[in-house]
């Protein structure tokens, strides 16, 4: 199965025309993640003085930002893994300016999406699996191996090394000090090490991944054993962007609420009750109790996200959320109710829809959004990424803009990557200085 997967992703691995946008989006997410409380912990813990550590740190920061790209069907967020690994390992190696850089990114995306689909994609979360956590070593190893010019046989061995002993079960996050992001970074590190181990001559079992193995990672009834080597695999172009910092499960509801506010010129003060409806599988996440001091809680809660959209739109681009929420935002959130809507399950997980009903002045206004303007195949991706780059700076150096940074050539990518590496070193020294006082 791994030989077929390796052959499939190498066949698909053509340099994507939108690679500059993926690089900008992932690095912007990493800069934003560095401004969080969790980012402080990671900056202290992960040694980023070498390319492997830099990729590990960037991946963890980008993923925790909840602004990285996502493929809905497989529930894989590939950019947070693939882009940092490609940038870190190609920087200064000569691979960045070649076609191989694009091939490595496309292959890394394809490997993750195929594995995520094979274990049941978004449905595997029912079994307690975090698909991207399971696939992270595979994506990192594939990206690193293709950068080296690995053939299908060598790549299959690298994949086996990366996946040996893996599990996608990590449990729920536990507050801002959660080890979730550190574990994610370590999974990426494991993939980089697997590629290096394979290059050093170590071999693994090429028959590791089987239908039984896939079932053990998820649940037997969810497995699609044909996905890894199938002819109709997914790739980078099938992966959508997030328009702001949010759990993707609730993003469509926020978009629907935005439409109502804009189209009806609604004064938020006149809104009585708001009903948010999402697919059944999304309900448990968007309806979790809001804990204002828990950053992930505010990113998941549909109530909080709608309150931010109504009263403090800049909050949607504030990844760190270090400041205590305003009382008026929390008061609005109490008027929002989230329910599961069975009729929205029909097209899930290909689309994660959201419907909002607003009671105002004795009337009920309703809007539904099935696809975001940033979903794959839509035309709003570039505008959204540029908006995030402008509004979601985090710790990105002042004056560094998407246009000025330029991600479409090796020099532009190197400038952005070096800015990130320098920022992490500066920030780590600041944190060490604070710890000594």
Automatic annotation (TrEMBL):
Task: Provide the MmgE/PrpD C-terminal domain boundaries.
Answer: 244-395
Q: Which family does it belong to?
A: Belongs to the PrpD family.
PANTHER family hit by this protein? 2-METHYLCITRATE DEHYDRATASE, 2-METHYLCITRATE DEHYDRATASE-RELATED
Q: Which InterPro entries match?
A: MmgE/PrpD_sf, MmgE/PrpD_sf_1, MmgE/PrpD_sf_2, MmgE_PrpD, MmgE_PrpD_C, MmgE_PrpD_N
Protein name per UniProt: MmgE/PrpD family protein
The source's domain of life comes to Bacteria
Q: Which sequence ranges are marked TM in the entry?
A: none
Q: Where is the MmgE/PrpD N-terminal domain?
A: 50-213
